[in-house]
Design a protein that fits this description.
The protein is of the alpha+beta class. It has ten helices and eleven strands.
Length: 320
């Protein structure tokens, strides 16, 4: 493809024509000549967050761009409404790749209940692989703002440790998994449908969550540290209570990675007074959940007394 912005006809054909207006807050879908997007929040608080996706294969980058950013807003107790997506492509990519990414963005946006309302698309030799940077716009009210974790809060975890990393390894590095049964690898690939935490955030907010944190780079152990450190608190964690899927165990064993420090978009940590009540509500909605620890006034440790180290680089970077 040629360097620079896509021409108007190509931009409309490959990208803009695919995005629909579904939210009442949106004034319209993105179109040629519109450099700003408008939303009507009727007095609510606006919540924004921005994250790049740099290490995913092009076939996953659309869904990850949507869910990673919407998950940030949902973990902040807000309702995601819209996204602005910057898409940077190396000259070696094709129009088919652009169209695939746009379709993936729209499919994931529909699942997350948000509109793609703008952004920027450019072919540039400044990148060597497809890269996105996405901004999510969300809404909440002052009455619904999270208060922050408190000593004694129980820590509820949804879904499973290493969810996203397991999916990416199975999809992008299946060559390293030649000794595993094909059905194990296929189950791992199918984890892509579990990447959103928006549904569990809504349930947690109805059950008086004090704080939430989505599990991204650094895995569940890194996310626990970050959840408590926001309030300068500590945590005690029962490692045996952390849910891990058999396919994650098989794949991380095969490539020598720690599933508890492997990125896991799709998993949410919730600090709340009554963990059992929140777990029951999540399970009633079909969302796996478990109490895995509690917030303390100081230090980070496991239930057996051993120290819980602070987060470092995600395990996935050792592989890619």
């Amino acid at each position: 493809m040629k360097l620079g912005k896509l021409d108007n006809d190509t931009l409309e054909r490959l990208i803009l024509d695919r995005f629909k207006r579904t939210r009442p807050e949106s004034f319209g879908a993105p179109r040629i000549g519109m450099d700003c997007a408008m939303l009507d929040f009727e007095g609510d608080l606006i919540v924004t967050s921005c994250d790049p996706i740099t290490s995913a294969d092009a076939k996953h980058i659309g869904a990850l761009s949507v869910h990673v950013n919407c998950n940030d807003a949902a973990a902040g107790g807000a309702e995601p409404v819209a996204l602005l997506v910057t898409l940077l492509l190396p000259p070696s990519e094709t129009e088919e790749t652009v169209a695939m990414i746009a379709e993936d963005l729209q499919d994931a946006a529909e699942r997350a209940g948000v509109d793609v309302i703008g952004g920027h698309t450019e072919v540039t030799d400044a990148v060597t692989r497809v890269t996105t940077c996405t901004t999510v716009i969300a809404r909440t009210t002052k009455a619904k703002m999270l208060t922050g974790a408190k000593p004694g809060d129980e820590i509820v975890m949804t879904k499973w440790a290493g969810l996203e990393g397991t999916m990416l390894i199975a999809s992008d590095r299946a060559d390293l998994l030649f000794g595993l049964p094909a059905e194990t690898v296929e189950r791992a690939k199918a984890l892509s449908k579990h990447l959103s935490v928006v549904p569990e955030s809504r349930i947690a907010m109805r059950h008086n969550a004090h704080a939430m944190h989505d599990v991204t780079e650094g895995g569940v152990l890194g996310a626990i540290w970050e959840l408590a450190a926001q309030e300068r608190l500590g945590a005690v964690v029962d490692r045996s209570a952390i849910p891990v899927l058999p396919e994650t165990v098989a794949i991380t064993d095969a490539v020598g990675l720690d599933p508890y420090r492997l990125m896991s978009s799709g998993s949410l940590l919730i600090a709340c007074e009554n963990g059992a009540e929140t777990v029951a509500a999540l399970q009633d909605a079909g969302i796996p959940a478990a109490v895995i620890g509690r917030i303390t006034a100081q230090d980070f440790r496991f239930a057996d007394g051993s120290p819980l180290d602070p987060p470092g680089a995600d395990e996935l970077y050792r592989l890619f």
